[in-house]
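Q: My labmate handed me this sequence with no annotations at all. I'd like to see what the chain might look like in three dimensions before we decide whether it's worth expressing. Could you predict it?
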Amino acid sequence: MDFSDALRAIKRGKMLCRAGWNGRHLRIFMVDSTERPVKDGDAMAQRVPVGTMLGHNNHIGILAKDGTVTPWLASQQDLLADDWMIDDGGVEESFVRGSAA
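A: Here is what I predict for the chain of 101 residues:
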């Protein structure tokens, strides 16, 4: 599928990957908006009182092999690719946090 179809699938809550990615365990998905308090020592604590709830907007995240999630931005190759796939939902051992080889 192309990126337009992939984006629609992400908005429906699907997890996706590309056949052309070198990291075969990488998946992208929608990270829902959340709120979290400013903590003492946070960079924001210099401008916002500790304990203030800050909103975090929806964004696309990428799930790495070690189980960590990072905000993701599409490259030009990702935007133009036709090899997007919806994750079949299978659980891979390699997705267990801390098991990266």
